[in-house]
Every structure is written in C-alpha cells, then in structure tokens.
Design goal:
The chain contains 14 helices and two strands, in the order ααααααββαααααααα. It has 392 residues and is mainly alpha-helical. It has one domain. It has a two-stranded antiparallel ribbon with strand order 1-2. The protein is globular, with a radius of gyration of 22 Å. It starts with a helix and ends in a 5-residue tail after the last helix.
C-alpha cells in the first residue's frame, strides 16, 4: 500500500508540473512567439531549461517553506501528500476549464493550511508572513508600474521604442517537422533585432521566475514528508514542466501570443521584468506567490499611471480634476522623441483613452477566482483531513 500511494503521489506531482508547464510557457514566451522571434519548439526548450534552473536554485527555498514551515514535515504522510497535491491538480483543471490562470502557489498553500488547521499544527507565524506578502506584493507591483507609467514610460517609449518585426525576424528553412533559421531577415531593422533579443531574454527570466515559484507546488509535500530528496523533486517537477511546455503549451502560446500583440512591446517587457523580479525576490525569501497576480497588477498600474498624465498632482489633490482610469492609454499615439512628450497635465484625455485594453468585468472575474480557488482548496482540505483522518 505505501508503495502504491507513493506512485500515485509521484503521478499527481507530475500532473501538477505538467499543467504548470502548459500555462507558464505561454505567459513567459507568448510575446516572443506572437512576434515570430522564436518558434513554439524553441519556446518550450527555453522554458524547460530556465524553469529547471529557477527550481534548482531559488526554488529550493520555497520547497523548504511549503514542505515544513507551514505545517511540520511529519504531517506529510503519503496520504496527506496525495490529498494536498490532488487539490492543486483540481484547481488547475478548474482554471483551465474557465480560462482563468488561478494561482497554483496560493492554492497549494491553501491546501496545506487546511491540513494544518485540521490537525492543529498550522504555523500561524509562517502563514501570516505568506499572506502579508500576498497582500503587499500586488500593491507594490501596481505602484511601481504606476510611477513608471506616469513619469517615465512616455520618455522611454520615445527614446527606446521597441517595435516587433511585422514578419519573421529570421529567414527559416523547412526541415520537415522542425524548422531552423538560416539568417536574419532582410526586412528586419537593428531596432527590431534589439527588441527581439530583449523579448527572448526577458522571457527566459520569466521562465526562471516561474520555475523558482512553482516547482514547490508540485513536489513540496513529497519532499517535506521525506519521500524524495529535494534535488530529485526539482528534477521531477522540471521534467513534468518540460513535457507540458512541449505539448499543451502550444495552445496557450497561440492565445497569449495573439492577445499580447495588442499591448505595446515596451509595456509588455516592463510588466515582465517588474513582476518576475518581485516573484524571484519572494521566492528567494521562501515565500510562495503568484506570478499571474503580480503581472496583472503591473499591467493595470502601468496603464493607470500613463492615463493619469492628463492631470497634475496638485489639481487631483485639490479636487479640481479627475484622473482617468483607462489602461488603453498604453496604446495611444506615441511621441517621436523625448522632447515631443507632452508635460503632465497637457496630455489629451481622449487620446489616452483611445483603446480598450482593460475590461473591468474580466479583471473582476479573475480576481474573484484568485481569491476563491485557494479559499475553496483550504476549506475542502480541512474537511477531508478532519473527516478522513486515515490520510493523516
């Protein structure tokens, strides 16, 4: 029986990693694939390497937290480990079904917290630190990008405008099932080439951050219970993420790649750098956090900050003017040089609301599910471990 449960636990852990690879690859390399800088195969290969690197280095700190700091490691019996991983897997299925990227990290922590509450072993100090980070991190992501959007983004866009190539950056040869580049396309400019290098490099950074944060979600209970070494767990999760990247990620790459073409490339890179840096830092501290939540708040903050350039701070504080909230301002007309950027208070409100990239109803649905999925996981986990004590 223990051997059977261990096999089940490994399979469920692999299933969780598989789904992480499918969803995270689109987030990390959607812009690169959408602008035809890399192929889907290349994106999957890069995702596999850098996610494993993130899990092997920074991700070990998150494994330690989730495998023994939220509840004592001895609580992770084989039955309990399988139960926790089961709830994470169900959350992934639900999020995929409704097309909403639910936070795997939050759901995993919620499942472990339910185990701790049912057994009376929940470490409140650790949970307090984690939940505080969940509240503070999105706020930091929003305000960092809001400041950039209000004071720096128009100047950065004018001075370092990044434009993706309209066609493919490289000339490709058909090698059967695999295509390979034969050189830089004659139509690509130096600026477009630099932009392409940046979007791939930052995609690799996002993959590293995803591996650092999400590896623990797949294997922390098994590692915490002593059923496998941390190194073995990281390799297992990395292999499962790679399988997901090479298979189901192809669909998410199509969706994310096409959707993100509506967002200016510079804005997308700023969002990726800020959100990935924030999550990597939290992972270094051993705190599991959501890359999707931080990235979304970065997008909202950057667009809101850009839109508020129509109003001076003194006027807004005195109540003489209202700042618009349209994130579509990121797609407004852009200045040719930094000298042409209008000063704050001189921007045209109609121009900054030119596009509709921000759907409040959609964002509300996503935020509700972000809160709901870990809450439901915690409640279901508490019920399971309270009424079925055999698994503990």
């Amino acid at each position: 029986m223990p051997e059977f449960l261990l096999v089940v636990g490994i399979l469920v852990a692999a299933f969780v990693g598989y789904n992480i690879g499918g969803s995270s690859t689109g987030v990390a390399f959607g812009p690169a694939v959408g602008s035809k800088v890399v192929t889907k195969f290349g994106a999957a290969a890069l995702m596999s390497v850098f996610a494993l690197l993130g899990g092997w280095t920074v991700g070990r700190n998150v494994i330690k937290t989730m495998g023994g700091d939220i509840v004592p490691s001895e609580q992770f019996t084989l039955g309990a480990s399988v139960g926790v991983l089961f709830f994470v897997g169900v959350a992934l299925l639900v999020s995929n079904r409704y097309g909403v990227p639910a936070s795997t990290s939050m759901t995993a922590v919620g499942s472990i917290a339910g185990l701790g509450a049912a057994t009376g072993t929940l470490q409140m100090a650790t949970m307090g630190r984690i939940v505080s980070a969940w509240v503070v991190a999105p706020v930091i992501a929003f305000w960092v990008c809001a400041v950039i959007g209000r004071y720096a983004y128009p100047y950065m866009d004018a001075a370092f405008r990044l434009d993706a190539a309209e066609g493919s950056l490289f000339s490709w040869a058909d090698g059967g099932r695999l295509s390979y580049p034969t050189g830089v396309s004659e139509e690509a400019t130096t600026r477009q080439f630099v932009a392409s290098v940046l979007v791939v490099g930052i995609g690799c950074y996002m993959a590293f951050s995803a591996g650092a944060s999400n590896t623990a979600n797949a294997v922390a209970p098994l590692v915490g219970g002593g059923y496998m070494d941390a190194g073995v767990g990281v390799v297992l999760a990395g292999a499962a993420i790679a399988v997901g990247a090479f298979t189901i990620a192809r669909r998410t790459l199509d969706t994310v790649g096409n959707d993100l073409t509506d967002l200016p490339l510079l804005a997308a890179l700023i969002v990726e750098v800020v959100s990935a840096s924030l999550i990597t830092f939290l992972s270094y501290l051993g705190i599991p956090a959501s890359l999707a939540v931080s990235a979304t708040m970065c997008i909202v903050g950057l667009g809101w900050g850009r839109a508020t350039r129509t109003v001076r701070a003194n006027d807004a504080l005195s109540g003489d003017a209202e700042a618009p909230v349209s994130v579509g301002s990121l797609a407004a007309d852009r200045a040719d040089t930094p000298r042409d950027v209008p000063q704050i208070g001189e921007e045209d409100p109609e121009e900054l609301a030119a596009a509709d990239l921000f759907d409040p109803a959609t964002v509300g649905r996503v935020v509700i599910l972000w809160v709901l999925t870990p809450s439901v996981a915690a409640a279901a986990s508490f019920a399971l471990f309270s009424f079925v004590p055999i698994v503990t």
